Amino acid sequence: MIETYYELMRRQGISRRSFIKFCSLTAASMGLGDAGAQQIAQAMQTKPRTPVIWLHGLECTCCSESFIRSAHPLAKDVVLSMISLDYDDTLMAAAGYQAEEALEETIKKYKGNYILAVEGNPPLADDGIYCIPGGRPFVDKLRHVAKDAKAIVSWGSCASWGCVQAAKPNPTQATPVHKVITDKPIIKVPGCPPIAEVMTGVITYILTFDRLPDLDAQGRPKMFYSQRVHDKCYRRPHFDAGQFVENFDDAGARMGYCLYKVGCKGPVTYNACSAIGWNEGLSFPIKSGHGCIGCSEDAFWDKGSFYEHLTTIRAPGGLGIEGTADRIGLTAVAAAGAAIAVHAAVSAIKQARSKTSNDKLSEVEK
Amino acid sequence: MAIIQTQGFTLDNSGKRIVVDPITRIEGHLRIEVNVDKDNVIRNAVSTGTMWRGLEVILKGRDPRDAWAFVERICGVCTGVHALASVRSVEDALGIKIPKNANIIRNLMHATLYAQDHLVHFYHLHALDWVDIVSALKADPKKTSELAQSISPWPNSSPGYFREVQSRLKKFVESGQLGIFAKGYWGSAAYKLPPEANLMATTHYLEALDFQKEIVKIQTIFGGKNPHPNWLVGGVPCSINVDGTGAVGAVNMVYLNMIGDIVNRTIEFIDQVYIPDLLAIASFYKDWAKWGGGLSGQNVLAYGEFPDIANDYSNKSMLLPSGVILGGDLKKVHEVDLKAADQVQEWVTHSWYKQGDESKGLHPFDGVTDPNFVLGPGTKGTRTNIENLDESAKYSWVKSPRWKGNAVEVGPLARYIVAYASGNKEIQEQVNGALKALDVPIGALFSTLGRTAARGLECQWAAHKMKYFYDQLMANIKAGDLNTANIEKWEPSSWPAEAKGVAPCEAPRGALAHWVKIKNTRIDSYQCVVPTTWNAGPRDQKGQIGAYEAALLNTPMVNPAQPLEILRTIHSFDPCLACATHVMSPEGEELVSVKVC
Questions:
Q1: CA-CA 20 to 30 A from A72: which of A268, B390, B400, B437?
Q2: What ipTM, to 2 d.p.?
Q3: Which of A140, A290, A297 to mutate to test the interface with B (most CBs of B within 10 A)?
């Protein structure tokens, strides 16, 4: 008999009242009303903890570090009460043989019912020998674990797009997860790293509603990635008024003017930084005085200097940019000179999307 | 089989071979193979980095002002350290001087990382090597409370508090879903703590997990986010405005107050939780003052950190000094020169790279890195399914850096040995106090226990230095200095046609430096030699072993099927393999064929 989240929370001394409050706050943070809160409460009282396998490829572990920064819910509560983190080489007690044994047991015991979270990506050059944990190419491990997963979460820009090791000339042929695994629902949570509460928000959403959140054409949850950092930036009025920082630490910088002219990529970056903020909403890059470097966008490393201002943006005022997430993303890729990649990406997205819409996950993998 | 003598160690690979891969609770991917004799004592050790990302080639041709963001992604655990090393090196190359406030803010951000990273290492990456969480279920919460109150004034110490945590733990275990604690080595005879100490430490594992996210908020205020805050060549990107128009859009009184509060809470947590726990746990594991010393009693290296004077990275300015100790002679501290061609050099004899003459080491300004994945004739398995590596040939993605040809250890212990030998009173008092509290001689420093203790002491030192830097910042603002960036040489048109630079840095895991060459306003070459390269690197052309391999030798294992002893010593270094194995020079652009010879 596996316990429900609610039972665990009660045993941990969390009152019924606090539990209901938690559900309401979770629902509110996702833009859901009372009905949503009831749904969350219902789910948490009836479901066992979902097994999660968290793999690491070529990466820097910033996603794991971000994850443990989550305040609502606390990482501790996610790991102890919401999911069952059955394999994660960064945090698990066991090593070597015992760690691999834990992995195989989880795959076998929860066949078709575990979530695979991937941090980093597999390098495909030279048969994958640039990442060989356990003496074997990481790409083989990824395929092996993905085979019986219910769904895949691609944490961060490495798993979602390739990120820094895939920047030109991508010497190890580091490749995002969706280009290697094409027969599973994949939810991309890009960012370098993603915001902590976005990570735990995605997990909580999947657990409570038993489905992937609504995704955009590139496979990102619409609830966090459908608007530009620019759209909700608190410095936006200065952009509209034509008040810009011309140089770092100039008079404009000290008054919090718009950072567009010192390279801010907020106008072409789809992320929740300006709305949800970092580290419990404390700040985000623009607020602290540095332009957005666009770290949640595909190939953001190859779009020119972080300090060159965007020439495609009509500023200030006027029509501004009103392209869709799809158009902006695809334009940027094409500009990077990879028209073929665009076609491949679109196909992969269509393929993934057809599997992931709003179907219940439990019905996806029969 | 061969018996090899090197650096006073004897290597014998004739006994049973044990492989631990993956080494968990580290950053990145590391494999350890050892041979044990009939008494299960480790007689040979092989350290292998199993990943490689090639970041330097990616940097070629980029804007040097962007480099910090690329190299920051070398590591998200010691987030920001590569960015700091990068901006310092570019500033050295271009002759850029940063304002006083920028230096203080960088120091404060860096000390913040030391505090958070060391804390997370102790509780979340290392503690489970010493703490048996299943045993904690048997603890008496009342006795646990008495224990906790006897060693610390930390207020979360009532019997009810520990009972609640124990109850949560019990129900977690009873759920049958053990998550990250599954398949641990619980109940092993290698665990020595009484149940009450196990419960106290487990409770603090959870408390520290909650608290660490508070410490890094200082980086968020100055850098906009954590992990991976933003940095700037020429200073820091944040502006200060305490009383002018638009102050709410800059670092203002509210944020400064918040930072002051976080600093105080950090000091309190480390003084009252980490340090008492460290000493309490260490007192049950004094045996570990005998094992795991490796190179620490011989050769250690530190580049120095926390410049008290802006733009001065000499020992006149550094709060933690630079220097090298050779042959265990604490009376002689050798000077480090990062630009001297005969000091820092890297070898690839046993690394999966090739170069013209592999008997030679290369200074990072002249580094060559050309991947060459070749396995030795004694390898068991295949190139894509390795069972046992052959350490007589190439066997790691990590290179072998040496200082004047010597293998050295780096990290908190190395920094503390160098500071101690350099006569730093503050560090000497702290170390002597800890040795006295544990009733162990100074020789105990050169061990797994010493390495773990040094990290804790340094965490405490860093937390108190956060306060020092905060006070400096407030005083400087009070004196009317608000400058945070020097943009005189921001425009590439102001740069010389060619320039090269390097500056020292000490990451939480040890000595770090980036060597950058700039040509026609673009990066011409970029090389990083990082802490885990020094420690985890394989043998060199003379067969000299590195710090990990040396530290594992002669350690007895309770049960070779449960590699707790290997984990203890390896974790005491706090490995960071993403850092160690990204190195590649422009010459390495063309990937070479791969074969098993």
A1: A268
A2: 0.95
A3: A290
